[in-house]
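Hey everyone, long-time lurker, first post.

I ran two proteins through the pipeline my lab uses and got sequence/structure pairs for each. Pasting them in order. The first:
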Amino acid sequence: MGIIINQSAKNMLTTYVGFAIGAANTLFLFTYFIEQQYYGLVSFLLSAANLIWPFMAFGVHSTLIKFFSFYKSKEDKDRLFNLVLFLPILISLLLGLIGIAGYRFLLDYFADGNALVQPYIWLIFIISVATAYFEIFFAWSKIYFRSVFGNLMKEVFHRICTSLLLFAVYFQLITVHWFIYAIAGIYVLRALAMALYAFRLYLPKLNFKFPRNLSVVLKYTSLILIAASVAMVLLDLDKVMIEYYLPIENVAIYGIGLYIATVISVPQKAMHQITHPMTAEMLNRKDRRGLAELYKKSSLNLLIISSFIFILILTNISQLYELIPEEYELHFWVVLLISLVKLYDNFLGNNNSILFNSDYYRIVLAIGVFLVVIAFVLNLVFIPILGLEGAALASFLAFFAYNTSKLYLVYNKFGITPFTQKTSLVLLLLVLFSFGFYVWDFSSHPIINILLKSLLISLLYIFLIYKLKLSVETEAILKKIFRNKSS
């Protein structure tokens, strides 16, 4: 348990550091150091790669984690490792051949609108393969309980390298053309570093025999492929479709709003590392009472924290956009709708852990596939009419339906909900703070205004959370903080 807690704490720290570096890149370095259309191009290439890499990985990164402990002998483990290594190569080659066959179609497709993309289409394939194998080798390290290096590479490494490259463009050490190629090179370098680390942990013997229970392994792999694909498509479909309907610089504008809203999801990622194994254990013990309590506690605590972040974002968004170039104009409804999506995600608490550790994950996958189709149709309808706000509305409706279906499924199958009497109080505070502080500002420089307003909101929000005794866990943390300060 000690190594798990230790590594979870380090992973949480690197996640926050990576997010901070990413925020600096997204809001300032990209916006000031390169032209808007090239910022949009980079955002599009990475989003397109995120749509493709789960198919190349074919779910084997999750399969390795699930089945590693199932095989006892070294020979069986080596067979599993070899399947994990070589199956994605075959899938990538197949997809690569399809890409080559349709390359002329792709060139013609981008020639109609954003011809800037044409010379860089093949980089999507490179980034996708590199990302797929990075995730595989990251999973490789996880089964040996060595996740810190992989998390550092995933959250921090590529963002620091991107910062350095942006400064290189700014000081005219490289052109923006080489910057884009170097971005792809970062993902390749990251995958190679992760591979070397994984092979140091364990180097399997080359063996082309299939592992035992191959049909079971491939069935699970296929289901995980669908799950990963659904998650990535719902996250990045809107940016890819924006590129088709609107000038490519709009991808950059939308990406900034999306990144700002995504800050709300950080607490959920951090808590998931703790609640996921606890949920799995309770399901195995059939501890329904403990599961219901954890469901409510995780939902309430995440809602308290994410509502606080939501309020800070919403009430400071106008001043924040005053700090970046004018061409990146504020699209308030984009930030609001995506922020509501992330807030809803947090409200679900450990809902995903309950479903994906139970026998009902197949139902979730089926719902997810259906909602990907719905999201595609909604983007087709709304983007030509409403532009960037249309993409945000499509994502909001798709995720709202997806999250609501998961909420109902847990209630229907387990008879539990995340709602408590205190949930409504937190939501009331959310509404009052959001409306009250959005329309009120200090008459000063945007940075000073953000700092003063955030300080005032923080003090008042924390005071009310403490006095209303909305969460035992939050109250205990606050008491400890106040005790340390007074001593």
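...and the second, right after it:
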Amino acid sequence: MSSINVGLLGFGTIGTGVVRIFQKNTEIIQQRLCHNIALMKIADLDITTDRGVKLEAGMLTTDVEEVISNPEIDVVIELIGGYEPAKSFILKAIAQGKHIVTANKALMAVHGQEILDAAQRQGVAVMFEAAVGGGIPIISAIKESLCANQFSSVLGILNGTCNFILTKMFQDGSDFATVLKEAQDLGYAEADPTFDIEGVDTAHKIALLSALCFGTTVDFDQVYTEGIDQITAVDITFAAQMGYKIKLLAIGKNHGGRIEVRVHPTMIPDSYQLAEVDGVFNAVRLTGDFVGPTLLYGSGAGMDATASAVMGDVMAIGRDQLSGARLRVPIMGYCPDQIKALPIKAMSEIVSHYYLRFTALDQPGVLAQIAGCLGEHNISIQSMIQPERHEVDSVPIVLMTHAAMEADVANALKRIEQLAIVTQSTRLIRVENDLG
């Protein structure tokens, strides 16, 4: 084999980054791969816009078949995004015997099993390091460097947009809408930021990480997902007074026969490393039975960081090709016949600490009524903040609970919000005090 030949589907921001790496780091790639690697063809609907990189004549095409069906191309990089036509293109490329590298977390989280089954039958690799955490090599760490460990948990800050917003709200005391607008003006948030702020992007990523860590399949529809749009500056201030920061946390936990996979705003102690991950940065915390807790931190998105992860996958496939290895590392980190179906715990069964902010009439006996309802549902109070009385009808009462079952908390809040003394809906934020 004279060269590892690559075709690219999608010439947007990340695709442009991939081309830049090919052009700028040709020498270092060859020195590390010990062989030549060549970008042969790029397919995109738009081949006229200037991306700021120079290409050889004839490299660009609007016809994906010139990539998918080209017998000289060994690896197809899919950077189109979304479900279709990306899935159809990938499946067709696999049928043609092409190895796949993709950054498409949504596709892999929702339709990944179909793609992996096709790749397994064809004996080709599918690699997706860039789908989770941008430039952070979390997937290769799980599949290779830490593969002798049994993982009990994987937790992460996996969306730079949400982390930027929550960081600015903490630092500036600004409200959500103001910081979201700032994030959009700076290019950190899309014009339509729904997938980010509602937690869907993060849920795609934790579904993949949980499957990789726990040797299972994850039905994306069962991943509990809650975004950050209801977080207020008031909650962030109270959290800080209690020694916590609020992050959009992706949580995967292995309880042996069952797993937790969930995404929601979470209060974590400000002394924890994850609490110090600010701005647009991402971090993933793995806990293995032998390695213990390990934190990987870095740029979670962007042209260069994501392109770096894409090229790492391409070079890994190239090394296997050159050595004659066939699926040296299982696509999902476990031998296919060892992947087990583990049920996901319902949120009603989750045990957590809880931050509860009640808004109630400023009159004697209010706290006793609220505490009584909590106690009736097996919920004990760990700490409390009750601001001084002012000339207003309603005041906040902020409680931190001891560990309690979600179903008990939901039933207690339903009862409390029927009390005449409560004037607004209660704000609930889950708390992770033990990141074990």
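Reply from user beta_strand_b:
Welcome! Quick read of the second one: The domain at 348-431 is CATH 3.30.70.260 (Alpha-Beta Plaits). Residues 303-323 form the longest helix (21 residues).
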